[in-house]
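Lab notebook: predicted structure, single chain.

Context: the supervisor wants predicted structures on file for every construct in the current expression panel, including those that have not yet been purified. This is the next one on the list. No modifications to the sequence; it matches the entry in the shared construct table.
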Amino acid sequence: MILPILTYPNQVLRKKTEPVVFPLSKEIKKLTRDMLETVHKADGIGLAAPQVGKSVKVIVVNLEKNELPPFPLYNAKVVKKGFKKIEVEEGCLSLPGVFGNVKRPKQVTIEAQNQDGKIIRITDDGWVSRVVQHEIDHTNGVLIIDLIKKYTGGEEIAKQWKKIKL
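Prediction complete. Output recorded below exactly as produced.
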C-alpha cells in the first residue's frame, strides 16, 4: 500500500524514534513492505519511518538505478566515520522543492539489523553511505535543512520553515 509522505513542518519529522524489537511484528513487516512500495512509487532513493508517520527505527534504501535491489534496515546507526568528507546536493521527499549541498563523511560503517534480527555491518563510500546517513538522520529528528551549507533550490521555502518553532 502506498503511504502518504509527511512533509515539514509535521512534528513527527522532528521526533527521535524508538528501536524495533525482534522478532518483527506483523505491523512492522507491513510497514516495511509499504515503505518499499512508497519509496519506489515516489521515485525516491531512501525513506525513513518518520516520513510516513511512524516513530520507529526503520529505513529503506532504493538504489535500483544503481543496480542494487531495494532493502530495509532496522535500528541502523553509524558506528565508524571516515576522515574524508564530501559535499553533495541532497533533496528530501519530506521537504519538497528544497535542495542544497550537505557535507557528510564519504565512508561510513553502518550497523543495523536485517529482517531476521541478525546484526549486519555495511562499510560503503558511495550511494549506500550517503542514503543511509540521510535516513538515519530522519530517525534522529534531523533534516537536511539543519545541515545544508548552500541552497541550490527552495531557499525561500526553507527560510519560512526555520521561522516555525516546533
